[in-house]
Every structure is written in C-alpha cells, then in structure tokens.
Amino acid sequence: MSTNKIDGKQIAGLVTEKVKERVENLKSKGVVPGLAVILVGSNPASQTYVNNKAKTCERLGMYSVLIELDEDISEDELLKNVEALNQDDKIHGILVQLPLPSQINEDRVIATISPLKDVDGFHPENVGKMMIGQQSFLPCTPFGVMKLLEYSDVEIAGKHAVIIGRSNIVGKPMGQLLLQKDATVTYCHSRTKDLHSFTKQADILVVATGRAKMIDASYIKEGAVVIDVGINRDENNKLCGDVDFASAQEVASKITPVPGGVGPMTIAMLMENTCLAAENTLTNK
Ligand code: NAD
C-alpha cells in the first residue's frame, strides 16, 4: 500500500460525522432532513448507488424515500412524481438517478426539480449561481474532490489544474470550483490533441473520462496530485479508475485509489447538500 494514497473513505467519514452533528441540531429544532431518490428502471449499477445513499441517510439519522419507477414510464408521469416531491415538506432533497431511459428528456426532468431541493446541483439555476460564485448546491462529485484536496492539505491557488473530461456533472464544474480557488485551469477532452503535453504540466490532474486505466505515469509530472474520478470494470471485472494506479503512484505525490477515493466523497457531499437544504428551510422562514 502506498503512503501517498488519499483515503477517500476516511475523509468521507470525517465529513459525514460533521453532517451527523448538523442533523442532530436540526432534529432538536423539529426538522428531520429528508432525501427522495427516484430510480427509473433496474440498472444494477444505479441500484447499488441508490442503496448506498439510502444506507448512509439511515446511518446519519436522516429520512429517505426511494421511488422506483418502471423502465417504460412516460416523461409526464416522471415529472408528476418530481412535482409531488417539490410540494412535500418532509423532503428537502430530490435526486433523480441518471442515466434515464431514452423516452425521457433528462434536461426537462432536472429543470422540474425545485432549485431549493436540487441536492445534485444540476439545475440550471444552481449551475449559474456556481459559475458566478453565489451560494448554491454544488454538484456532489466535484464538491467531493474539493473536500478531498482540502483535507489532504493540497495547495490550489496558483497551481495548474488540468481536468480531463468536460461533462456537465463532473469535468465542467470541477474546473469552475478549482478556478474559484485560484488555480489556473486547463480542460482536456476527447478532441484534445497531444494530451500528454497538457497533463505533463499539471500540478493537480483530475481524470474523468470513463476510460479504464487510460492515464499512466507517462502522463504525469513528478510530484503531481492525481484525482481519479472514473469508475470502470477492468478485464477481470474488478472496479478500477481512469488512472492506472500502480503506475501513477510511482510519480504522483498524492493520488486517489478506485474504489475508496472519490466515490465515497460523492455520497458524503450528497448528505451535506441535503442537510444544507433542510437548514435553508429554517433560515428562509
Ligand atoms: P462522460 O462520458 O459524460 O464524459 C467523459 C468525458 O471524458 C468527455 O467530456 C470526453 O470528452 C472525455 N474523454 C473521453 N475519452 C477521452 C480521451 N480518450 N481523451 C481525453 N478525454 C476523453 O462521463 P462523466 O459522467 O463525466 O464520468 C466520467 C467518469 O467518472 C466515469 O467513469 C463515471 O463512471 C465516473 N463518475 C464517478 C463518480 C463518482 O462518484 N466517483 C461520479 C460521476 C461519474
């Protein structure tokens, strides 16, 4: 086991301990933070994520409901479920597990979630607020990466952060959050020419491509901090990241493993966002 490994499980534990205290404080004021998760269809990976979220809610003393809907549900029916949750006072956070089946327009579903309950931070209003540095729900995965960096004492200001991936849920917001902490940010993606020339300059390299083990030591500057967001299965059906951990850890100063790196942080930040949504109902009264 490498000593430069960032232990996401341990840091997620520290984050959720603080959330638990906030939950207890809310309960003393008569509010139990509640999260509703909508799962459409029976994708096994989604089911695992959803079960982990419910278990963590329970452990922290939060209320959670799981709404399971048929794979062939119409968009209208799904939107009705979201609207009912928007009106439900016991529910402070709403999460619709993605991806959704092809008959459903994801953008429309996300836009229907009340921005006040959008604990995934995907609603255009929250995305816009994040862009201009106003308080909003931050998307859980990049928010979790920022916490990992903070708890690991990684200096961000003035550093060159290179993000590989430009999805709306990981890559794009990741760059924004690092920019807000004064990093110089470069985005790379599937059309980037000569990826090595960019990644070799990175002080902080965040990889979110969904390509198993594509980044090895040859892409990494000596002493860089490497954050692996990827969740893939390797040729032996074992979980692995987008980074070849064994090779990369030889040159990185700090590196997240998969599993046990970014993954646990995503759930921890969802709990923090749900708690914040519940706290907001008291301050907005
Ligand atoms: P996505 O497919 O939406 O985006 C992938 C991005 O990678 C794209 O922007 C694409 O341009 C870029 N890319 C693909 N191949 C590339 C290549 N060869 N070179 C350079 N760039 C390339 O994926 P996503 O939703 O952003 O997720 C990325 C990975 O992170 C996936 O493995 C996903 O399972 C994982 N993920 C993990 C968590 C977590 O909690 N740990 C959360 C969300 C996503």
What amount of the residues lies in strands? 5-15%
For CATH, the homologous superfamily of the largest domain is named as: NAD(P)-binding Rossmann-like Domain
Structural class: alpha/beta
**What is the CATH third-level topology name of the largest domain?**
Rossmann fold
N- to C-terminal distance: 50 Å
Order of helices and strands: HEHEHEHHHEHEHEEEEHEH
Q: Please tally the helical runs, counting DSSP H or I stretches of 4 or more residues.
A: 10
Total discrete domains: 2
Average per-residue pLDDT, rounded, comes to 96
Overall helicity: 40-55%
Shape: globular
- Alpha carbon gyration radius: 19 Å
What would you say this structure looks like, in words?
The protein has 285 residues and is of the alpha/beta class. The chain folds into 2 domains: 85 residues, Rossmann fold, CATH 3.40.50; 124 residues, NAD(P)-binding Rossmann-like Domain (Rossmann fold, 3-Layer(aba) Sandwich), CATH 3.40.50.720. It is built from 10 helices and 10 strands. The protein has a 5-stranded parallel sheet. Helix 6 crosses helix 10. The longest helix has 22 residues. The mean pLDDT is 96. The structure holds nicotinamide-adenine-dinucleotide. Nicotinamide-adenine-dinucleotide binds next to helix 10.
List keywords for this structure.
285 residues, alpha/beta, 2 domains, binds nicotinamide-adenine-dinucleotide, globular, Rossmann fold, 15% strand, 3-stranded parallel beta sheet, single chain, 5-stranded parallel beta sheet
In short:
This protein is of the alpha/beta class and 285 residues long.
